[in-house]
Design goal:
- The protein is of the alpha+beta class and 266 residues long.
- The protein has two domains: 65 residues, 434 Repressor (Amino-terminal Domain) (Orthogonal Bundle); 175 residues, Beta-Lactamase (2-Layer Sandwich), CATH 3.30.450.180.
- Helix 1 crosses helix 3 and helix 2 crosses helix 3.
- It starts with 11 loop residues before the first helix and ends with a helix.
- InterPro entries: Cro/C1-type_HTH, Lambda_DNA-bd_dom_sf, MLTR_LBD.
- It comes from Actinomycetospora succinea.
- Keywords: DNA-binding.
Length: 266
């Protein structure tokens, strides 16, 4: 006799309660924000009441749920997804892709790259290629994950002079992203990378030498000290755009600026 199984899906109330707990919001606090009774919100979370699409979207907005997870919640509640998910090379994103290319090119001779939520590189400028020229090309086969490339023993890690501090920074970033998004892939990536690096030093002495933590790379053309900035799209209504970030590096000293200018010129 054939045995059939059905895939269990999380109930929308369970997902909603999970996000409320993750954001450390009480039922009363959230209910006041969206204009419903605490009793009704409690019934929605326990499955005794069915929320409308409008209420679910409003709750997600107040809980700052990422667009991908909003679609998951809507599907669990029996509604069609609200937010599209486009490939970056889709015609609908031509303007966005052109803007990113403009930003990447305009940032040269300093490195800049566009990554998705999990840190996979989707675009990069020439300065990034110059920076990674010291690595085995086999490590640069796509998809290149910027976190793994930075901390793997066969990647940049042996060339990073302040590896414990930089690794601590990246692992903290992954932990924060996993908490904000609830994405299990980020938890798995952080667990993987934790085993690659020594613990970072703690206390004010570890931070006293810099106003910001630089990435300090031993490069054949000269040591590089770089500060990083991260930019996100505002008011994104597409899952792909919501998950993209632009990371730009700027020289922390004149020697680094000169090396980067020479590398890109060559």
């Amino acid at each position: 006799m054939a045995v059939t199984t059905t895939e269990s899906r999380p109930a929308p109330g369970d997902l909603l309660r999970g996000w409320r707990t993750r954001r450390r919001r009480s039922q009363m606090d959230l209910a006041l924000d969206v204009g419903v009774s605490t009793r009704h919100l409690s019934f929605v979370e326990t499955g005794r009441a069915r929320a409308s699409r409008e209420l679910l979207v409003d709750l997600c907005e107040h809980l700052e749920v990422p667009l991908r997870e909003r679609n998951t919640l809507l599907l669990a509640a029996g509604f069609a997804p609200t937010y599209s998910e486009s490939r970056l090379d889709a015609r609908a994103l031509d303007a966005v892709r052109g803007a990113l290319e403009h930003l990447l090119t305009g940032h040269e001779p300093f490195p800049a790259l566009v990554v998705d939520r999990c840190g996979d590189v989707v675009m990069a400028n020439r300065a990034v290629s110059a920076l990674l020229a010291l690595l085995d090309p086999a490590l640069l086969e796509p998809p290149v994950n910027v976190y793994r490339l930075s901390l793997h023993p066969d990647g940049l890690a042996p060339h990073v002079r302040n590896l414990p501090e930089w690794a601590g920074h990246l692992l903290h970033r992954l932990e924060r992203l996993s908490d904000l998004t609830g994405d299990p892939r980020l938890v798995a990536l952080r667990d993987e990378l934790t085993g690659y690096v020594p613990p970072a030093p703690t206390g004010p002495a570890a931070r006293a030498a810099h106003v910001m933590l630089p990435l300090h790379i031993a490069h054949p053309d000269g040591d590089l000290r770089l500060y990083s900035t991260i930019t996100h799209f505002g008011a994104a209504w597409d899952v792909t755009l919501d998950e993209l970030s632009l990371e730009s590096f700027v020289p922390a000293d004149d020697a680094t600026r000169a090396v980067l200018e020479r590398l890109v010129a060559e």
